[in-house]
Amino acid sequence: xxxxxxxxxxxASLSYRTRRGPILAVDRADLRIGAxxxxxxxGASGSGKSTxxxxxGGLCRPDSGETLINGRDWRNLTAAEIxxxxxxxxxxxxxxxxxxxxxxxxxxxxLPAVLxxxxxxxxxxxxxxxxxxxGLAARWDAYPAELSGGQRRRVALARALAGEPKVILADExxxxxxxxxxxxxxxxxxxxxxxxxTSVLVVTHDPTVSAMADRMILVxxxxxxxxxxxxxxxxxxxxxxxxxTLPQAASxxxxxxxxxxxxxxxxxxxxEPGSGIRDVLVGWLVFLAGIAATATAVAILDSFIAGxxxxxxxxxxxxRKLAEEMALQDLRAEVEDVTVAPDGRVTATIFLQNYRPxxxxxxxxxxxxxxxxxxxxxxxxxxxSGGDSRQIRTIALGKEIIKVxxxxxxxxxxxxxxxxxxxxxxxxxxxxDKPGGGDLFDRQDGYYLYLRDPQRTEDEVRKANGxxxxxxxxxxxxxxxx
Length: 482
Fold this sequence. Notes:
Elements: E1 7-18, E2 21-33, E3 38-42, H1 49-56, E4 64-69, E5 72-73, H2 79-88, E6 90-93, H3 105-115, H4 120-133, H5 149-162, E7 167-171, H6 179-195, E8 199-203, H7 207-211, E9 215-220, E10 223-227, H8 250-256, H9 277-293, H10 295-302, H11 307-330, E11 331-340, E12 345-354, E13 361-374, E14 377-381, E15 383-386, E16 392-395, E17 399-407, E18 420-434, E19 437-452, H12 458-465, E20 476-479
Parallel strand pairs: 3-8, 3-9, 6-7, 7-8
Antiparallel strand pairs: 1-2, 1-4, 4-5, 9-10, 11-12, 12-17, 13-14, 13-16, 13-18, 15-17, 18-19, 19-20
Helix pairs in contact: 3-4, 3-5, 3-9, 4-5, 5-6, 9-10
């Protein structure tokens, strides 16, 4: 480990404020991430793992203690220095992958590089090379909704690698994937580890991922303690020459143990990025849209605008900031109720509410998904009904109600609370403060809850939890995001 770690937490604590008092999410954490290290964070859901990851990446600030990058407190960095760190040093891989639904796979990968200063041509070539490495070169023009969960995660990993970062912060990279898809992601992470030039800090429940780590950190009740490494689970590291690469041929992939990706679809018309005028225009539109979307790019534009016009730009930035606060803070979205019909079908009621009804918000979607935790992983459930992802809703007074209906398939579920299933409802939406346009903000929400297992009686649940004979056994219990 180098003398100065890339990322470090020193006695960092963070509490969330609730109506009934504070919840201590991270308690006096001490953690150092050195060059080339692979560190896994393990622990039960809700223990503070994702919050610790956010603290390390400077996404939130501790109430006490400090978090540092290259020996400097995140709080002491200027906005420009934070942007530079995010563009070239710290890559984030959130639980949902964080892909922009309106951009193709290629555009999702190249946009951060363009915003960091790379030429569109250079960024496109780099993005295509990364798509080749993760087995998705043939799907370069696919939108996220046209890709499977594992394919979306591979695109997100390629985007994380695009800036050749010093450290990748990954939150449950295999958590909601099936065995083959999780294996592909695991092998890519193994290749990054074998390369040794990029540090990885990963939150995971996957024993195969945690076993490849140099160190394991157990988080319990917000406290961090070193964990004993599990017995090593064999994993395959791919060959690296200067940058992360994966074996190209299926035969070499098989010999090395790296993933053999699914073959390219046979029904697609052949097309290469940049082969037509449409792709040239799309590339420039992505470039211009990215410039309009970032404060750093606005500063670049400022340098080309005369004095009188600068005030217009500043006003636009203020209005955009206000619109962003409305979209991400003033729009409340939560689970209001959950019911189970006699036939076992579950109906979850989600509501959207505007905290500033005098300024209506316009919401495209949400697109909904439901998952259940089994064997330490999230398993997606088919929806029988659940909102129209193409509908534009105007949210002013009152609540906008969306109902999602699904069934729990047979099988054993993980029980973090005895007698209850661990459920997650995901909602993706685009929010604007103006009808038909204005500033657009992509919002991804996750609602977590415990749902009583219909195969267990109330008395069985009381006994399993040590509750009194007359205590109430709720059908569902809401959980904070984690």
